[in-house]
Structures are given as C-alpha cells and as structure tokens.
Design brief:
6-stranded mixed beta sheet, 10 helices, 2 domains
Length: 353
C-alpha cells in the first residue's frame, strides 16, 4: 500500500507541476485544483482497502468513484508528459496546460460514454482448410471478460443475453473471466445466462479471474445455467469441427490433453483465455484459437504495451497455419472506461478455405 501510494504521489506531483502550476489560476481555483490532484493520488488504493470487507452494494459507489478518478489520473499524467514535451519545444506553458487538461477531461468523458453504450457486435469470417461443407457458414458468438462482479451486474448480463440471442448463433462460447465476485453475492446476477440460446449450446473455458473466487461453486452454478465448461477436454460440434477448451494458462492449461483422441480429419477450434497459449496450440495443429484477457488494452496506450508479452492485443491474425482471434472483451475491469477500444460481442463465421 505504501509503495503504491508513493508511486501515485510522485505521478500526481508531476501532474500538478505540469498542469496546475503553469495555469496561474486565481487563488481559489488554484487551491481547488491542487486539492483535487492531491485527493486523486491515494484514492484507488485506499478505496480498495476500505471496501475489502464491504458487501458489493455498500462498496460500489466508493469503488466507482475511485476507478473514475484513476481514469482521470491516467490521462492527466499523459497530458502532463505531452505538455512537458510541448513546452520544451517552445509552446506557451499556460496554454499547453489548459489544452492538455481539457483534452484529458474530454478523453475520460468519451471513455465513459463508450462503456455506457454497451458492447458492439464485431463480425469476422475465418476460413478453415479442413472444414467440411456441413460447417460452412457456421456462426459462433464469443463472449469473454464479461466480469460480472463488483462493477457489472445482472442488468448488464441481461442486456448481453438479449444482444446475443438477437444474432441467432449456432454456438455460444465464453473464453474466461465471466465470474468475478463472491459466489453468494453474485449468484443471482449470473442467472440471466440461463436464457442464452444457441442451436448447439453454450460452452466455456476458465480465465484467471475464476480462480480468484469460489471456483467449485461457480463451476457447478454455470452447469446449472446450461453452460458446459471444458476443462482441458473437447467435443465434436455438428460433425463439422472439434471444439476444445483449456483451463487458464496460469493454473492448469493442458492443450495436448484437451485434444487427445480428437478426430484428425476435422478442424480444431480452441477456447483459451490467454492469447499466449498460441505456441502450444500451434504445436497441436489447432486451426483457430479464440481468446480474450487483453481487453484490447482497454485504455489507450496500454494496448501497445500488451504486444510486449502477448502475440496479439485484439482482432484476427494468422500465425503459420493457426488463426488467432482475440476479443477486446464484453465487459470491462476496473475503470468503467474504454479509450481506443470497444466492449464487444464477437460473431465469428466459419468458411471453407
């Protein structure tokens, strides 16, 4: 906690020195701006600490305020850096500070509006060389990183289900981080998933967040809601392709085990939460890997950093003979903001190719 607050304090001192001080505001406004910057520094770690023992409902407003404040801190810090560079290049310090602050506020407000509109449908077609004629045009809806928990509830889950069912998919898959809260508190908020409709059912694999909570209870609950969780195993879908699912790579991922005994004549679609499962998928001849985890970075420029440890931050790309599709996530985690990314429901159509 002390280390985190110390780092945040240094960042916010930099924000004050590059944005507040150069503005030369009247004394009252200067004091208010200074107080706001000071308050932002410890807000998130203190809110996390303060809400540890609270119920979801009691702590929601405090967490929401702290997360939004953190979003402002991120973009004020970036604005301070840009302003610093601009001043070094000869720009007017006061004007640069005013423009930088206004831009940061506009970006955060836009990010809030982006999340408020809910997930959008991203459509993509993936050609699979071994796909039989029976699988041509097969429609898979992928959900991932829904994060029903501290910030997102049953109302969001109901809206997601409505949008998915409107697409009339052949199959629904969920690639992890669906459950993100205490079982007894969040159980009722997951119940809308019972209404998901797809001709060939709903399948899922685990993500890292499932293991932060009561995993056995959540897995049993998902089964009761009609969601079949694939734990390092596979099934054959519509005599057209093999659908496999692996546990999260941080826990017990086993790609060879998941594909043992599969029909080699059929293409393989693998559900794996982490894109970094890709090398193991390639080694086993997987045709298409569906992943999430990255949120596309959620807040620009974090998506650029993700590329340092993941093969792909978002979208579709072919690696050798294996396609990888990484969804930006259906919900969000932490700040209810999306900048440079969108919450999505992926509609994946398989084709022969």
């Amino acid at each position: 906690m002390l280390i985190a607050v110390g780092i945040l304090a240094a960042c916010h001192l930099y924000i004050w020195s590059r944005l507040v001080a150069p503005m030369a505001l009247p004394s009252g406004l200067h004091a208010l701006a200074t107080a706001l910057v000071v308050a932002l520094a410890p807000a998130l770690p203190l809110a996390v600490f303060a809400t540890r023992g609270m119920s979801r409902e009691r702590g929601k407003l405090l967490r929401l305020s702290a997360y939004i404040g953190f979003g402002f801190s991120v973009y004020l810090f970036l604005a301070a850096i840009v302003t610093h560079v601009a001043v070094l290049a000869g720009a007017n310090p006061r004007l640069s500070a005013l423009v930088g602050t206004a831009a940061a506020i506009a970006v955060v407000l836009g990010g809030l509006a982006n999340v408020a509109r809910g997930p959008i449908v991203k459509s993509v077609t993936v050609p699979l060389a071994k796909l039989p004629e029976t699988g041509a045009g097969y429609r898979i809806v992928q959900l991932t990183d829904v994060h029903i928990g501290p910030m997102l509830d049953g109302k969001f889950a109901t809206e997601v289900v409505r949008r998915v069912n409107a697409l009339a998919p052949d199959l629904v898959v969920i690639t992890g981080d669906l459950c993100d809260g205490r079982f007894e508190e969040m159980r009722s908020h997951m119940s809308p998933l019972r209404d998901l409709r797809a001709r060939d059912g709903v399948y899922a694999c685990t993500g890292n967040h499932e293991y932060y909570w009561e995993l056995p209870q959540w897995m049993a609950e998902l089964r009761s809601l009609g969601v079949k969780v694939l734990h390092n195993e596979h099934v054959t879908i519509n005599d057209s392709f093999v659908l496999a699912g692996v546990d999260d790579s941080s826990v017990s991922e086993d790609v060879p085990g998941a594909l043992a005994g599969r029909d080699p004549k059929l293409p393989v679609v693998l559900l794996a939460h982490h894109p970094s499962t890709l090398p193991r998928a390639q080694a086993e001849g997987v045709d298409l890997q569906l992943s999430g985890h990255t949120h596309g970075g959620q807040l620009l420029p974090f998506g650029w950093l993700i590329r340092l440890w993941e093969p792909l931050a978002a979208g579709l790309k072919k690696f050798g003979s294996t396609w990888l599709y990484v969804s930006q996530g259906t919900g969000f985690w932490g700040p209810p903001l999306r900048v440079g990314t969108s919450s999505e429901i992926a509609l994946i159509t398989l084709s022969q190719g």
